[in-house]
Amino acid sequence: MEAAPAPWRTNPDRQGNVRRLTWGGLGHATAQWKPQWAALHRGSLHLLPSRDADDGDDDAVNVWQGRRIAVLDPDMVGGAEHCIAVVEPGELSKAVHESSALVLQLTSEDEVRSAVPTCLASCSNCVYLASTP
Question: What is the pLDDT of residue 132?
């Protein structure tokens, strides 16, 4: 008997393709955008290589505790548009380079405008932080 799909697969608060900023190379100094599929469900963000990936590939991230959600100015992310970040409180201009930050590039400005309220509603511990270059 096949197990029922996880609730975050069948009833996510939000889902879709994103690109996640990762750091690699010698000294983790090279920025790379990694395509992923994301599903937000009840305060947890599930990141997978693709929508059809096995649940065993799930990189569940419960990143919200004490964090802020910020819409990033393209100048802060090497010119990349439509980016949001989940960051620790502090100076936003350095957050992109912090290993604890989760930076996601969404597909459009409309996605950004609708994603932030959904993220805030999914997690009561989040605060919206407007970015300023």
Answer: 42
- Burial tier of 85 (Cβ tally within 10 Å: 0-12, 13-18, 19+): buried
Under CATH, to which class is 7-130 assigned? Answer: mainly beta
Residues 6+ apart with CB under 8 A from 126: 64, 67, 68, 69, 86, 119, 120
pLDDT number for residue 131: 47
- Name the amino acid, one letter, at 45: L
Would you mind telling me the total number of residues written for the chain in this entry?
133
Q: Are strands 68-72 and 83-87 parallel, antiparallel or unpaired?
A: antiparallel
Mean pLDDT of 62-73: 76
Instruction: State the CB neighbour count (10 A cutoff) for residue 16.
Output: 14
CA distances from 73 to 24, 65, 108, 120 (A): 23, 23, 14, 19
- pLDDT at res. 58: 59
The token duo for 102 is 């989760």
Report the chain's C-alpha Rg in angstroms. Answer: 15
Question: How much is the pTM?
Answer: 0.81
